[in-house]
Amino acid sequence: MQENRHLLTDLGIQLSHHELRPVYQIATEKKRGITRSSSSLHFTDFSTVSGSDNLAQAITIRLLTPRGELTALAHPDYGSRLHELIGQPNTDNTRNLVRLYILEALQQEVRIAEIIKLKVAQVPGTRDQLSVLLQVLPVASTEVVTVEGITLIL
Q1: What phi-psi label fits residue 75: left (phi over 0), alpha (psi between -120 and 50 degrees) or beta?
Q2: Inter-axis angle of helices 92-106 and 51-64, to 10 degrees?
Q3: pLDDT digits over 54-104, tens only?
Q4: pLDDT tens sequence across 27-42
C-alpha cells in the first residue's frame, strides 16, 4: 500500500441505478455502536477508497461525467465526450470514437503514466451496449490498475 500512497484517498461511491444515466451515491458502512439495555445504537459512516481502487473510481467518474459539466466549478475540461455518442449506431466507427474519447479524457489524469489496454466491445445479446475494459499503469508504480464494469448504452 505504501507504493500507491500517491494515488490518494477519497470517498467511496456505489452505483445507485443506471437507467438512462448512471447515478452514483456516496458509499456508507453501518457500524455498531454502544449497546444500552437491550437495544444497540447504529451509526453510518462514509466508506473510503485508497490507492489503485481510488484511481479506478476516479477514472470511472471522469469517463461518465460529460465534458463541461464542471465548468461552473472552474474545471471546464473535466470529463469526457462519451455522452455525445448516445443514439449513435453501434458500428466500428462509433466504437473507434468511444476509444478516442476515452483516450482524450485520460490524457488529463495526471496519475496515469501509461494506458496498457483499452478494449471496447459490444455486450453479447445487445445491440446498443458497449463494455469497456481499461488497464493503466499509474505514475511511480509497477501495479497495473484494471477498470472494468463500465457499460455504455448508445
Answers
A1: beta
A2: 130
A3: 899 899 989 989 999 989 989 999 999 999 999 999 999 999 999 999 999
A4: 666 554 444 545 555 5
For the four alpha carbons of 125, 83, 138 and 113, in that order, the dihedral sign comes to positive
pTM value surpassing 0.85: no
Contacts by residues 99-103 (CB-CB < 8 Å, ≥ 24 positions apart): 102/63, 102/132, 102/134
Q: Which three cell numbers stand for residue 6?
A: 500517491
CA quadruple 83, 130, 145, 26: dihedral sign: positive
Which ranges constitute the DSSP H helices of 26-117?
Answer: 51-64, 92-106
For residue 65, what is its C-alpha cell? 461525467
